[in-house]
Write a structure and sequence with these properties.
By secondary structure, this protein is mainly α. It is built from 8 helices and no strands.
């Protein structure tokens, strides 16, 4: 990964440096898992569950998305899904819904950065 790519990822809230360390310095392995995120259905599952008022399913999806984003050092997404996870844990669906516009923005920023990296 070149310096320009690292900067673009950092701007998108992706701390590739810390993630690569977590992957024991294996940059290729990190890239493989980070780019697999482009196909992960958890985000859609979360939005669908919230839209349908399914609090437990929304909690499970938010918790999963938090874990994935934490492991991959998608920092902004991790923080946001962490807040949503805690609200859904307390079954505060209305409060969690308020974060959806920010979630959509942060998620799309990560997706765009990963798509650009992939190319």
């Amino acid at each position: 990964m070149n310096t320009e790519t690292r900067k673009k990822l950092q701007t998108a809230g992706i701390d590739a440096e810390s993630a690569i360390q977590r992957f024991m310095g294996n940059e290729a392995l990190y890239e493989k898992f980070a780019l697999q995120f482009l196909e992960d259905p958890t985000y859609d599952t979360l939005l669908d569950a919230i839209a349908n008022g399914e609090v437990q399913e929304a909690f499970a999806a938010a918790h999963t998305l938090k874990g994935i984003s934490g492991n991959l050092s998608f920092t902004n997404l991790y923080v946001l899904t962490g807040m949503m996870t805690e609200l859904l844990r307390k079954e505060e669906l209305g409060a969690a819904k308020e974060y959806i516009p920010e979630l959509e923005r942060v998620y799309q920023t990560v997706q765009n950065a990963l798509e650009e990296w992939k190319e």
